[in-house]
Amino acid sequence: MRCVGVAVLAALFGLTNAASAGSNVVVMKENYTITGKTGEELLAAMKRTGPKKGYMVHAMAQTRYSLRWNTRWDKSGGGCRVTNPGATLYITYRYPWVKGGMSPDLQKRWARFMDSVRTHEETHGRIAREMVDAAEKAVADIANDNDPDCSKSTLEQLRRVRGVQAEYEGRQRQFDAKEHHYGGNVDGMLALLTAKQK
Fold first, then answer.
1. What DSSP state is assigned to residue 103?
2. pLDDT (tens digit, 9 = 90+) per residue, 11-67?
3. What is the dihedral of CA 142, 147, 153, 155, to 10 degrees?
4. What sections of the chain are H helices per DSSP?
5. Which of 91, 90, 93, 111 lies closest to 42 in space, CA to CA?
6. Taking the mean position of all CA atoms in its chain, how far away is CA 53?
């Protein structure tokens, strides 16, 4: 299974003082429909209709996230400094949903399979939350004495956030590599799903 975390720093750094600052997390869940009477059929349906990863490959589940900054700036005295580096993280999980009946055995295996899938995807979400915490800490001390329009400070914020993002995207890839290696957790999940029905 190829579950991917997609990080996008969206709608970057407005210079207005946000009405409400401080980090927030908005979590959304989506489903896509599959059908099948066996584990192999469900697996094939996920590979055929799951969320796209690249142009040709479909993942079985996916975590997408984006970050919008709500930074408060103090522009007094011709300078610019961060007074609150708040951000909002938007996380969307996309999971398969089976339409139609399943045998009791397949239903049990599907439930266990989906428990593992959710754990995997929610780990991507946790790493994204850690990224936001680290990014907020990284920009909290930004201050420039001669920056009346906050342009220098905004560029510095962008530079620091990109550095944090690169580090945590590396952590996302490391997590996926561990999960997807031969004989790893994902192989076990697929073996459970496609085991011969009793």
1. -
2. 333 333 333 334 689 999 999 999 999 999 999 999 999 888 765 577 899 999 998
3. -160
4. 39-49, 104-139, 151-180, 185-194
5. 111
6. 14
